[in-house]
Every structure is written in C-alpha cells, then in structure tokens.
Amino acid sequence: MSPAAAASAAVVPPDFTALVERVGPAVVNVTTSGMRDPASDAVGQGPGDPLREYFRRFRPPRQQEVPTRGIGSGFVIDAQGYVLTNAHVVAGADQVTVLLPGSKREYKAKVIGLDRQSDVALLKVEAANLPVVTLGDSDKLKAGEWVAAIGSPFGFANTITAGIVSAKERSLPDEIYVPFIQSDVAVNPGNSGGPLLNTRGEVVGINSQIYSPTGGYLGVSFAIPISVAMDVAQQLRTEGHVTRGRLGVGIQEMSSQLAQSFKLTDARGALVTLVDRGGPADKAGLASGDVILRFDGKDVAEAADLPRLVARTKPGSVVDVEVWRDAAGRTLKATVGAVPLPPEEARRVPSGNASTRQGSGSLGLAVRELPQAGRRALGIDYGLLVEGVSGVNADAPLQRGDVVVAVNNQSFKSLDEFKRQVAKVAPGETIALLVRRGEASAFVPLRVGKE
C-alpha cells in the first residue's frame, strides 16, 4: 500500500454498528416532572444572592406553581437497577422516570443522591437483570481517538453521534473538580447524562455540557471522565453525599513573568494568594506567596490541578506539600480537611436518633444535633441543625439545613448548653446566632420571646 493510500485508510471512521447493538440496550431515557414557582425566576432569587431575603419578604403574593417537564439520558451500571445520569437532569424533580427504549420498559426511579459540583447523579429502579454497560479507563483516553455518544437528543431515543477527542483535562469556569473530556461529538438537549464511548464500546465519560453562545451544538462538547463519575457514584451509594478534601488556600496561575520574579526555572505550580486562617494550610505553615509544586507526591503542573488533587484526598489524610519559598524548595506536612457540604446535602445526612430533635421555645426554633458525619463535613466540633423556625422569629433569615454553632459568639458542646446560653437572655432582648450555611458563615439576630 502506498503512503497516500495508507494515510487515506487511517482516517476512515470506524464502524459503530456493533457498538450500538451491544451498548444501546443499556442506555436509557430519563424524564422528569415537577412543579415550579414562577416567582423563583425573579431577580434576587439565586442562592446566596443578597436580594434573596428582600424578595422573600416583600415580593407579591406567591403565584400558582406551574408544571415542568425535562428530558435527559442515562445508562445502567448495575444489573440490579443503578443508573448514572447528570445531576442537572434530575435536580429539583418531583418524579423521575427511566425508560429502556429497546424493551419499552418504564420504571419510576429513586434519586439515591446527586452531586452538583461534578454534575453526577445516581438513580435506582426496582428491576433485575437489566442490560449493563462496560466501563472503560478514561485515564487512558488520548486526544485524536474516535468516540461516540448515545442518548436521547430532543427525545429521540438511542441516537448515536461520533467524533474525536479534542483534548483532555479541560478546565471550565466554576468547574474546579472535573477535568473534562472535550470532543466534537454532537451533543444536544436530551443527550445530557448519556455515555461517551470509545471504539471498544466502553464508557469513558458522561456527556454533560456544550460550549455555545446560541444554546445549540457548535462542535465543542464536554464529558465527565468515568473515573470521576464512578468515584462520585460510589460515595452517593454508600454515604448519600460526596466528601472532598480541602486545603484552605486561594491560588492563581503561575505566568512566565511571575516565575521569573520567584526565581523559578519554568512557569508551573499553583501560586498561593491567601491562606484561610485556622485552616489546614495555615496549620501546615503555608503562606501567601508560596508556590505549590507537588501535592501528595503528584506534580502540580498548573493551578487547576491542585483543587482536583486535594478534592480526591480523604479528609484526615496527612500529605506532603512541596512548595517553593524564598527561591528554595521545602516540604510541609498538611492534614487535609473536608469541604463543607452544601445546605441541600447537609440536610440529607442521616439524622440519627430522632429523639434528639427539640425546640427552643423562647426562640421558636426547632433544632436537632448535627450527626458526626455532618460535623466532619463542616469541620466543626458541634452544631445544631435547624429544622424549622416559627413564632416570634418566623421571618428570620434562617432555613432548614442551617447549622447553629454559637450563641452571642460563645460556642456550645451540647443541646442543653445551647438552651442554658439562650436562657441567660431576658425576653424581649436580641441574641446573635452564628450560623453555617455551606461554606458561608453569618450572625443572625433573633428576638427572645417567652417560653
């Protein structure tokens, strides 16, 4: 064969027919339904928005909720009925339905757990002997390889599209934990949650999002590596939430100009811009201006590498952190902390003994002890989980899932101690509760009423 003929043969796309026949039966349609408050779309209604409380108090009366429907894809990873999909496909849904297009079997699905940070959700249907996909090794995937996507774009079941891997370990804005696989496989609404497959028919990723100013496919799509997705799925299956390591630093990319000023031979590593006071990095001796070159024996080639390496490390682990400081290298020992759970995840932490749920009558506050798993996730010694607010403080900016950690800046170590601290304040006076909501902390004033 001549070189020209060999080059021509090399670019012939593979035949995906056998792949579709083998994998297609394990790819499912995911449909969701629920009710939505139209007022939730108003300005100032996003989580953390400073206007949220204003709108909650002063917006017009609540409008009638309207029904919503959504579509997506997923795939069966266990013959006993476990299905992987995207978190954004099922988030907020009241009902989730899984359809196996090949057999026309339809099942009501339970959301075992979802992780918004990685956009992975684990579903469970009550069925047995389901067709199952074969999982591949996303770490071995290379740029230039042929890949295919199977899903339900616009509801058209078992649609296959193909392309090549454009790049690996892509960093996207606000997506610090996922090293995305970029490809030019056509992905459209309804494809989300479906598998990205190599030519052997192995799942190497979950199709998650596209890059487009118009909302339509323009040749750039992104998938979550299956190694990341399966780690998340295992934690959701066993714990109901995902635990990630935390170092407690702010970082930026190292440029060639900065490298020269720090007397580094090349632009690599993560430049520390701030250190959380009292956090794991602070306790380990890291300082602003350090350049982190290696974490737990792994190179930090660029700043985006560090959050992923830290997140994969089990909280409580003691690791070596190699830094560049004052034109010399040194190694520090750090005990990795835990990223606090988002409020919706903290609410899913098992409650333990229901008898611990009690109220503080003078505050109108229903609370219970935060279980040990929740304390570890938030990095606190003790706290009380808010379950409701009524009475004199019904309009207080507290919500179910908030965690109270101090009264008038004084911590407490038991529910009884919390009650004693509240009892010291006379009716009609105001106390300040220090409250954790995810990674944020704030003092919330409450008026003390009569028991």
TrEMBL record:
Sites binding substrate sit at H88, D119, G190, N191, S192
* InterPro entries to which the protein is assigned, alphabetical: PDZ, PDZ_sf, Pept_S1C_Do, Peptidase_S1_PA, Peptidase_S1C
Q: What class of enzyme is it?
A: hydrolase
Record PROSITE patterns: PDZ
For this protein, what reaction is catalysed? Answer: Acts on substrates that are at least partially unfolded. The cleavage site P1 residue is normally between a pair of hydrophobic residues, such as Val-|-Val
Q: Does the keyword Protease apply?
A: yes
Give the protein family.
Belongs to the peptidase S1C family.
> Which NCBIfam families does this one have?
degP_htrA_DO (TIGR02037)
For this entry, the protein name equals: Probable periplasmic serine endoprotease DegP-like
Protein source organism: Ramlibacter tataouinensis
